[in-house]
Specification:
It comes from Evansella vedderi. The protein is of the alpha+beta class. It is built from 5 helices and 10 strands. The radius of gyration is 26 Å and the shape is elongated.
């Protein structure tokens, strides 16, 4: 997923179609929470003009993340739609809202931007359907409680205060 500017300009008339499977396993070194990731499929088209090249991409794959509650492995599939614009001409003018990348060394490399999009798509936490896992559900003087359990139980020391808010009297 790397092209020189001259290669891209040869595709100006007929366009460029991308359909590649990319190994992004190095992303595990960047983000340690990603335990595993499948090869990512990148599908898209490039619209090449004299001043810029615009890639419209769909990035899909699956990553394995730890459950926030039990630390079990959770498979998280993703399907990302992305638009990446590269500036070919230094004199080109773009809208302020467009995020435009400058070409480095006369080559356009999509790989770092694919990694960036995957990292941005990664959720803050995922949950497993299993109740048991590596993380304990209770310990010394603590226990995992759900909101429903918490609202039903009333501390016996505060039972007398309940009468204070009773509106029937």
């Amino acid at each position: 997923m790397k092209w020189s500017v001259q290669q891209l300009l040869t595709y100006k008339e007929k366009g460029l179609h991308i359909d590649e499977s990319v190994d992004v396993s190095e992303i595990k070194k960047i983000d340690r929470e990603i335990r595993d990731i499948t090869p990512v499929r990148v599908i898209g088209d490039a619209r090449i003009m004299k001043q810029s090249v615009t890639f419209r991409l769909v990035i899909s794959g699956s990553m394995t993340l730890p459950c926030a509650r039990t630390l079990n492995d959770v498979e998280y599939p993703f399907n990302i739609e992305a638009v990446e614009i590269f500036q070919l001409d230094e004199m080109a003018v773009f809208d302020e809202e467009d995020e435009v990348h400058k070409v480095k060394g006369n080559t356009v490399d999509l790989f770092p931007y694919v990694l960036e999009r995957i990292l941005l798509e990664k959720p803050l936490r995922v949950f497993s359907n299993e109740d048991e896992g590596l993380a304990p559900a209770s310990g010394k003087d603590w226990e995992l409680q759900t909101k429903e359990e918490d609202s039903v139980k009333i501390d016996p020391r505060l039972k007398e205060l309940e009468k204070f808010f009773d509106e029937t009297k």
